[in-house]
Design brief:
The chain is an alpha/beta fold. The chain has two domains: 18-109, 60s Ribosomal Protein L30, Chain: A (2-Layer Sandwich), CATH 3.30.1330; 117-272, SPOUT methyltransferase, trefoil knot domain (Alpha/beta knot). The protein is 28% helix and 18% strand. It has helices spanning 47-55, 68-72, 89-93, 117-121, 138-150, 168-174, 189-198, 214-217, 236-240, 259-272, and strands at 42-45, 61-66, 84-86, 105-109, 129-133, 155-159, 183-186, 202-206, 212-213, 223-228, 244-247. α5 (138-150) packs parallel to α10 (259-272). The radius of gyration is 21 Å and the shape is elongated. The chain starts with 41 loop residues before the first strand and ends with a helix. The model is unreliable at 1-34 (pLDDT under 50). Residues 7-17 have a biased composition (Basic and acidic residues). Keywords: Methyltransferase, Transferase.
């Protein structure tokens, strides 16, 4: 795997190169029981999240804690000088959220650099944009990222506030999508929707009370799909910044769908629409 990163180890305890560590896992002495990353760092866990981060050339990696089985599960080999501290599974459990499935891999790295909305809007206009209005659950946002990457969205847009931070929980739910899908964080979501409109995108807000279905509202050209938080839905100001409001044609037997499920269905509809 080609990776860019410092590969720095713990400043108080330098890790030996990965290829030199083939013996029995030792007991860790640093970070025991904290479950928190170092200052300014992000701690990721699980094979898909860690593997994608290691392959991402835009990630700066600080340190990898792992079991031998965890490293062997990765697609490709680590560089010989990559900083790894071998550990037992029980030790890794102390580095992550309670009951988090670390799969023998915990990576500490720097957060990803900021991405500007204007940059992603200059890309392929056939790829949809996902806009989230105060969706705060990291599991939901991670799952939406996964669907967005799967259906070739160009970016996900959230606010700086009232949105989850980059974290191991979000990355695990995203299953690698955090590393490949541009995540634009903005101060003012309404202003961002204005910029999206100026770039030629038709903005469709999803609301179960709408008259039109998403299929009826989808244009042939560039589209931005806007979803609000579960329960409250989109805020009024955000609704007013949409060109159309649409619903998914679900059965009356169910009042609504989880926001991540709704996003996946909307992305599928956008990916399979007739554009000619």
């Amino acid at each position: 795997m080609n990776k860019r990163g410092s590969g720095r180890g713990d400043p108080e305890r330098e890790a030996r190169p990965a290829k030199a560590l083939r013996g029995r896992a030792g007991r860790m002495k640093n970070g025991r029981g904290s479950g928190k990353a170092s200052s300014g760092a992000v701690r990721l866990w699980g094979r898909h999240a860690v593997e994608a981060a290691l392959k991402n050339p835009d990630r700066v990696h600080r340190k990898l804690w792992a079991t031998r089985e965890g490293v062997e599960s990765l697609d490709g080999e680590l560089p010989a000088d990559f900083a790894v501290e071998w550990a037992q599974a029980a030790d890794l459990a102390r580095l992550v959220a309670r009951d988090a499935p670390h799969q023998g891999l915990v990576l500490e790295c720097d957060p990803l650099d900021d991405i500007f909305l204007g940059d992603v809007l200059e890309g392929d206009p056939t790829r949809p944009v996902i806009v989230l209005d105060q969706v705060t659950d990291p599991h939901n946002v991670g799952a939406i990222m996964r669907s967005a990457a799967a259906f070739n969205a160009c970016a996900i847009v959230t606010q700086d506030r009232h949105a989850p931070v980059e974290s191991g929980t979000l990355a695990k739910s995203a299953s690698g999508a955090l590393e490949v899908l541009p995540w634009v964080r903005v101060v003012n979501l309404a202003r961002a929707l204005e910029e999206i409109a100026e770039a030629g995108y038709w903005r469709i807000g999803l609301d179960g009370a709408a008259e039109s279905t998403l299929g009826e509202a989808l244009p042939a050209g560039p589209v931005a799909l806007v979803l609000g938080a579960e329960g409250d839905g989109m805020r009024r100001n955000i609704t007013q910044h949409c060109d159309a409001i649409a619903k998914l044609p679900i059965s009356d037997a169910m009042e609504s769908l989880n926001v991540s499920n709704a996003a996946a269905i909307a992305l599928y509809a956008a990916a399979t629409r007739v554009t000619e």
